[in-house]
Specification:
Helix content: over 70%
Strand order of the largest sheet: 1-2
Shape: globular
Radius of gyration: 21 Å
CATH topology of the largest domain: Growth Hormone, Chain: A
Structural class: mainly alpha
CATH class of the largest domain: Mainly Alpha
CATH architecture of the largest domain: Up-down Bundle
Order of helices and strands: HHHHHHHEHHHHHHHHHHE
């Protein structure tokens, strides 16, 4: 039941993000606003989520994972309700920030609630289910959004989240068990916290808005420089403060360190790849939105099935070669597009095969890249470890999309000759992600590294793990 409640919350967050993408034209027409203003509906949400992940993970450890999870879902639900009644674009952007305040804490607290419920030898299976539900939300989002907009207008995509959010809070209060890090009682770092929030926010804001402001504009360069100065301040404070917002001891664990580094390259390609495919169908092939949604749907639907399977396989085989194989299939998918896609639409022979390869590859890689950093952590490190990995991921998602836009150039989405450079970027990024895991990630399963047998118990010997603080049930 714990996994079910948490998966519904993740489905809620992911489907909301994917639904909003298809609602832009309708929102713009109804609220009489410009594309530049509309872009802030996404930018404000993404920047807020990314900048608060570290703080949310630390807060969940200190105040209790269940408490923070339920509050975050309630805030997200309230934000959805407010978005559904927003009178103008400015109000909608502000209410999206309210949504993001809740969404930023759902990710770290949800997995921290789920993983302690499973033994080491079954945790990747749990992450596989978690990833499959997230993938399913991304897959059905565009279609569900189009249907809701057709029936109820754009406001329907927001209020549809409200009953699901209420259900999660009600069921969560009954079935979730409270845990927290008993020894994490020190005061938060009054310098490290703002450095983490502002550093991540300013860097990501500069990256995602560079297309509109100009890559060499004073505003873009100023925000990027200030953010890049604050991030070393965060590391410096985290090395010295007794209760840091960023737990640097996580990086002493080889599996966490390598998987987080691989996440950088994976993040450069993941969201940017889907963004490029959407541009290809809509701009190059001039497909309408509904047809584009259908054309892209095979990949996320197949990834759902692959995620479900690969999570169980990773518990037996480990994450190393499964991530490498999944990344290799993603490389093959974009290499296929590089050689086959032309200006004249030919979906069945030129595009669909790449969607099938990408679906299997992403399903394998995203599950492992999510579970791999957490594989050798103790239960009291799950929230902070997941928050750290997801912060890196969100930053790299922004860089990846910005790179695709920059490589295409102004108006380049309508010109086939502009696509080879983004395809090469994606191929290289997925290749580096796969090679990083294949060459440096520990071999074998997490249970094997912990000295557990197939039916091992919780008293089995740990190998290569720092002595962590123990979680205390409350």
């Amino acid at each position: 039941m714990v996994l079910g409640v948490v998966c519904v919350s993740i489905f809620l967050v992911v489907i909301d993000a994917s639904i909003v993408n298809v609602a832009f034209p309708t929102i713009g027409a109804d609220l009489d606003t410009t594309d530049a203003t509309l872009s802030w509906i996404l930018t404000a949400y993404n920047v807020t989520v990314a900048s608060l992940l570290l703080l949310a993970g630390r807060t969940a450890d200190r105040l209790g994972r269940k408490r923070v999870f339920l509050i975050s879902v309630a805030v997200f639900t309230l934000g959805s309700l407010l978005c559904s009644v927003a009178p103008d674009a400015g109000s909608l952007i502000a209410f999206r920030v309210v949504q993001a305040l809740g969404g930023s804490a759902i990710f770290p607290s949800s997995l921290a609630l789920v993983l302690p419920e499973f033994p080491v030898e079954r945790r990747s299976a749990a992450v596989g289910i978690w990833s499959a539900v997230a993938g399913f939300g991304g897959a059905v989002g565009p279609s569900a959004g189009a249907l809701l907009i057709e029936l109820f207008g754009w406001r329907g995509i927001f209020w549809a989240s409200v009953p699901l959010g209420v259900a999660v809070v009600v069921l969560g209060r009954r079935f979730l068990t409270e845990t927290r890090v008993a020894t994490d009682t020190g005061r938060l770092d009054v310098i490290g916290v703002p450095a983490s929030v502002l550093g991540v926010a300013l860097v990501l804001l500069a990256v995602v808005q560079a297309e509109h402001w100009g890559y060499t504009s004073v505003r873009t360069l100023t925000l990027a420089c200030v953010g890049l100065v604050l991030l070393p301040v965060l590391v410096w404070r985290s090395r010295r403060h007794p209760s840091p917002v960023l737990d640097l001891s996580l990086f002493s664990i080889r599996s966490f360190r390598v998987a987080t580094f691989a996440t950088i390259f994976f993040g450069f390609a993941f969201l940017g790849g889907f963004f490029l495919n959407s541009l290809l169908l809509q701009r190059l092939w001039e497909w309408p939105v509904w047809k584009t949604g259908l054309g892209l749907s095979p990949s996320p639907l197949i990834s759902v099935l692959a995620s479900w399977w690969v999570g169980r396989a990773a518990d037996r085989l480990g994450h190393r070669w499964l991530t490498a194989a999944g990344s290799g299939l993603c490389v093959a998918a974009f290499a296929w597009q590089f050689w086959r896609v032309g200006a004249v639409p030919d979906y069945w022979s030129d595009f669909l095969p790449s969607m099938l390869m990408l679906g299997v590859g992403v399903g394998m890689a995203i599950t492992c890249i999510t579970a791999a950093p957490l594989a050798d952590l103790s239960s009291d490190q799950f929230a902070m470890g997941n928050a750290t990995a997801r912060t890196v991921q969100q930053l790299c998602y922004g860089v990846g999309v910005a790179a695709i836009v920059a490589l295409l150039g102004a108006g380049g989405a309508e010109d086939l000759t502009r696509y080879p450079r983004p395809w090469i970027w994606l191929i290289c990024s997925y290749t580096l992600a796969g090679l990083t895991m294949a060459l440096f990630y520990p071999s074998g399963s997490a249970a094997g590294r912990a000295g557990l047998t197939a039916g091992g118990g919780s008293h089995a010997r740990r190998r290569g793990r720092p002595g962590g603080r123990r979680s205390a049930a409350v």
